[in-house]
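Can you give me the bound-state structure? Components:
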Amino acid sequence: MKALSLRELEAAARALLEPGIHDLFAGGSEDEVSLRANEDAFARVGLVPRVLRGRGAPRLDTELLGCRASLPIVLAPTAFHRLAHPEGERATARAAAAAGAIFTVSMASTTAIEDIAQAGGPLWFQLYLQPDRGFTEALVRRVEAAGCKALVVTVDSPVFGRRERDLRNGFMDLPPGLCCENMRPLGPDGERGPARSIAFSPTLSWADVDWLRELTSLPIALKGVLHPEDAKRSLDSGVDALFVSNHGGRQLDTVPAPLELLAPIADAVGDRLPLVLDGGVRRGTDALKAFALGARAVAIGRPVLWGLAVGGEAGVAHVLSLLRSELERALALCGCGSADDASPELLHFSRWEPRWRTS
Ligand SMILES: Cc1cc2nc3c(=O)[nH]c(=O)nc-3n(C[C@H](O)[C@H](O)[C@H](O)COP(=O)(O)O)c2cc1C
Ligand SMILES: CCCCCCC(=O)C(=O)O
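Here's the bound-state model for the whole set.
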């Protein structure tokens, strides 16, 4: 039976995945306060529809960082797709390409970027800047050659978050036969060497972003910017977009939900930088709320892994199709012709408290 919603798909994936892999995907850091906050934030904002606006059937197509996409929902970078399904990132890429959706490939993908690019859809590549600049430069050249259209630099990970589910389950590394394929340097004839590990470095600074800006002409998005002052600072480094993200609640715990932090960031950067929000997006209405608060697009992480686990390429296609139809319906019900029509006037922030008559 096909899942009617991402919630149903999540339950189906949970039943199929080996428990340690399920926890690896589902978990957050420490007490998982941010993880829970991400979905809760959407539930706490109401939508107040406008009526009789005659906007016609909503259009979802958009352009982001020079890429045309058929919907403003991006696949966020997530590691290790081959733990969810043997076809891994290849299956994800085929589903995204068929849907006209942008797929952000994780630096920690279990399939090499060249093989993922065979699917032919629009790809961005997520990068953890490595202290070894020579390695980073070689990887950037490789990603450019593979045809990726943008770099998404994750800046919320100077150290790795403490994920206690993984510690409890003893998940230390990928099983034999799998590795982070992009971490295998290419030899002169394109042969892939042994994988090196990904370094998380607390010495990274804006100087490294400036260095990357000089290195490549690809558009650069910074992922994990949550403070308005950092958003403003990013303008000086010539970046092209920001992902307003708390890494799905997997890095610093107790960071508020990105939805709650979006408006001040949108205020800080104005029209100068497009914003992509991720964290807890599970419904078309969630996406609409993010657009109303200033996001140009949203990104989804775990739902893609649930789709993969349940049905490989068809499962990811189903995730995108559910969200597409939900978003079309939500826009139409709110009197919007596109995501650009969404504005804060549609949102209701409840301060209502019941007062019961006692006499
Ligand atoms: C299993 C898993 C792996 C992830 N891997 C990466 C990664 O390699 N790089 C990265 O920048 N973010 C990574 N993320 C974070 C996502 O890009 C994204 O910010 C987050 O999943 C969005 O929240 P959601 O899962 O609630 O949609 C990962 C998240 C999960 C759940
Ligand atoms: C040593 C590989 C680490 C992969 C990191 C993936 C990630 O960002 C996550 O949240 O998990």
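A couple of observations. The mean pLDDT is 97. The pocket of LXCWX6NK (ligand 2) is lined by residues 79, 108, 197-198, 247, 250 (CB under 6 Å).
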